[in-house]
Write a structure and sequence with these properties.
By secondary structure, this protein is an alpha/beta fold.
């Protein structure tokens, strides 16, 4: 289903929904890889030009020289091969994260990826007053000369999160940066990673702590950019209004909406099974000019389900409340 930037109103029909479900499958590999050759281009300039291709910002760690001249023939290289060649020429290490790709000093990859997993787990368990503002997306941008302390302090204030450990950030001045929207929690860690720090999410707020150099990520992310970058699709979804009238299997309906809004879907089927809810049962939903949140509520509340959005993941689980409409809220799955 196309996105309409000038008229952010998306209409779902059953036929259109089927098209979305088909389109939400795995993407084919890019034939021929990257097309591009760079001769003596400054590293910062090259990183900026590669952001669109990667589908997420390519960020230079503050310890990497942005003026390093790069000569590189990317023709025929896949994205990860190109980044490996770029890292070799800049004497850096590629760190693939879910919302960004980082060129960092060697030896930081595992700690940074593990820190991202820790942040996601902490935000998922945090009170709603912290979880929602930290998952909220905003422009990742600041002018040259900004100090990391003032930037981190402002991000914490925007999230209404009490902040501890600000004095552990060294005094410094950042290079200017402008990237696509990212979750507020990811931006905090993007800034702090240059000092081997991260923002731990606690019950009471945020605490700046050291990265664990011995940590290992459970599932390191891969670089597999979608046809439309998640940040761009999610930015569209924030302004869009959805009109939907459908009777469809619950899991397919949610998968279609996740794909439309730049999210990946995770259904806790075990919790649904405990409540006797088959994720393949047909559900009926009708909304008009609803926000993304209202649309998800309209689908999940009648079944007593709960949804959360963390970074680019939409998680569905069985809540503690019974279905609003009892057992008639859904229909048997189609044969």
């Amino acid at each position: 289903m196309p996105s309409h930037r000038s008229q952010p109103h998306t209409a779902f029909t059953w036929a259109a929904l089927l098209l979305v479900i088909v389109a939400s499958g795995a993407l084919p590999a890019q034939a021929g890889g990257v097309a591009g050759t760079w001769q003596g281009v400054g590293l910062a300039q090259l990183a900026e030009s590669l952001t669109d291709m990667l589908g997420r910002p390519l960020v230079l760690d503050c310890r990497i020289d942005p003026t390093t001249p790069i000569t590189l023939n990317g023709s025929g290289l896949e994205a990860e091969q190109l980044l490996a060649a770029l890292a070799e020429r800049s004497r850096a290490e590629v760190v693939i994260l879910r919302e960004s790709v980082r060129l960092a000093p060697p030896g930081r990859r595992a700690a940074l990826q593990a820190a991202e997993e820790a942040r996601a787990a902490e935000i998922a368990k945090a009170p709603a007053r912290l979880r929602r503002p930290l998952a909220e997306r905003q422009a990742a941008a600041w002018p040259a000369g900004t100090t990391p302390r003032e930037l981190v302090s402002q991000l914490a204030a925007d999230a209404a999160a009490p902040l501890a450990g600000l004095d552990s950030i060294p005094h410094d001045h950042l290079r200017g940066f402008s990237g696509p929207p990212m979750s507020r929690g990811a931006i905090l860690d993007l800034v702090l990673a240059g000092y081997d720090l991260r923002a731990a999410v606690t019950e009471s707020g945020l605490e700046i702590v050291r990265l664990d150099p011995k940590a290992e990520p459970a599932t390191p992310p891969r670089l597999d950019p979608p046809a439309k970058p998640p940040a761009e699709a999610m930015a569209d979804a924030a302004n869009a209004r959805f009109t939907l009238e459908a009777a469809a299997p619950l899991d397919q309906l949610l998968a279609a909406i996740a794909a439309q809004t730049g999210l990946t879907l995770e259904i806790d089927e075990e919790s649904l099974n405990r409540r006797g809810i088959d994720p393949r049962r047909v559900v009926r939903v009708q909304v008009e000019k609803a926000t993304r949140e209202q649309l998800l509520d309209a689908i999940t509340e009648p079944l007593g389900l709960a949804w959360t959005i963390t970074d680019t993941k939409l998680a569905i689980s069985a809540g503690s409340s019974p279905p609003a409409d009892g057992p008639e809220a859904s229909e048997p799955r189609p044969d």
